[in-house]
Design a protein that fits this description.
Layout (H helix, E strand, L loop, with lengths): L6 E5 L6 E5 L2 E6 L10 H12 L8 E5 L5 H9 L4 E6 L2 H10 L8 E5 L2 H6 L9 E6 L14 H8 L2 E13 L4 H13 L2 E7 H4 L5 E8 L7 H8 L4 E4 L2 H6 L25
Parallel strand pairs: 4-5, 4-7, 5-6, 7-8
Antiparallel strand pairs: 1-2, 2-3, 8-10, 9-10, 9-11
Helix pairs in contact: 1-2, 1-8, 5-6
């Protein structure tokens, strides 16, 4: 890859399917025989939101930032046939590797564009503004989210793509204390006022490092979402919404381009296999 890291596709050691590894860090899991199999916990939480935010089976328009092995676009293509999807991936070589080893389902309306996620979003044609049901931001450089995709300015550009009830899903990783998460929640709430946070219970309590999924929209997230998302797991699950989200971000200021920083790096032992 352009940064000198090495990517490969290998059979999953722990379940059916395949994993995309970058410098031996697992980035994506794909089951070609069953694209609805979402192995990684944070991906399953994203899938639960996608299952819930529109009636089952309805086609959607989606933009995905950060391709990996296209786990979520494959999931949407199977569970919501006819969906139109655009994927933005920085590394053309990575997409070539994935396309060769993990081909997309036949008939999937998935377009892959090579480029920096923020730069591509800011150049989106006017015709797509206000037309997107779902934006997934899962942008990582190694194990960290780059600073330039964490700011009010960045999330404002995502919000311009959304329909009035569209949803942004953001995958971030954070550790004890959740300092990065608190600022990301404050940042999203400045642009899209209704935010929920989904994670494994100990991660959301700030007791260990892990992934958190932030869901944000202009309109209130329906009350019936919460029990359905909790029931969907993975378990033990925790969801923060409403007053709990306000408390989570109360003492955190929103991030601007001027003071944005990458997400914290995990301990080197986190991905030991």
């Amino acid at each position: 890859m352009s940064d000198g890291s090495l990517a490969r596709v290998a059979p999953s050691e722990f379940t059916s399917g395949w994993e995309l590894l970058v410098d031996e860090t697992p980035q994506s899991h794909v089951d070609l025989d069953d694209p609805t199999h979402l192995h990684f916990e944070y991906v399953a939480r994203m899938g639960a939101v996608i299952d819930t935010f529109r009636p089952a089976g309805d086609a959607i328009t989606a933009v995905h930032l950060g391709a990996g092995a296209l786990t979520i676009p494959r999931y949407v293509a199977v569970t919501r046939p006819g969906s139109r999807q655009q994927v933005v991936e920085l590394e053309g070589g990575l997409w070539d590797l994935v396309r060769e080893n993990l081909p997309l389902p036949r008939g999937a309306q998935i377009r892959v564009r090579i480029g920096d996620a923020r730069a591509v979003v800011e150049r989106m044609p006017a015709g797509i503004l206000g037309q997107v049901d779902l934006v997934v931001s899962d942008v990582f450089s190694g194990a960290r989210t780059p600073a330039h995709v964490t700011s009010v300015e960045f999330y404002t550009s995502l919000a311009k793509l959304l329909t009035s009830s569209g949803v942004v899903l953001v995958n971030i990783a954070d550790g004890p204390g959740l300092a990065f998460t608190r600022r990301q929640v404050a940042t999203l709430r400045q642009v899209l006022p209704h935010v929920a946070v989904l994670a494994e219970a100990q991660v959301l309590k700030g007791r260990r490092f892990g992934n958190l999924v932030l869901a944000a929209s202009r309109e209130p997230l329906p009350d019936e979402w919460l029990p359905r998302l909790l029931a969907a797991g993975p378990h033990p699950a925790k969801i923060a919404s409403g007053a709990e989200v306000a408390t989570l971000s109360r003492d955190a200021g929103p991030v601007s381009d001027a003071d944005a920083v990458p997400s914290p790096a995990p301990n080197s032992s986190l991905f030991e296999r």
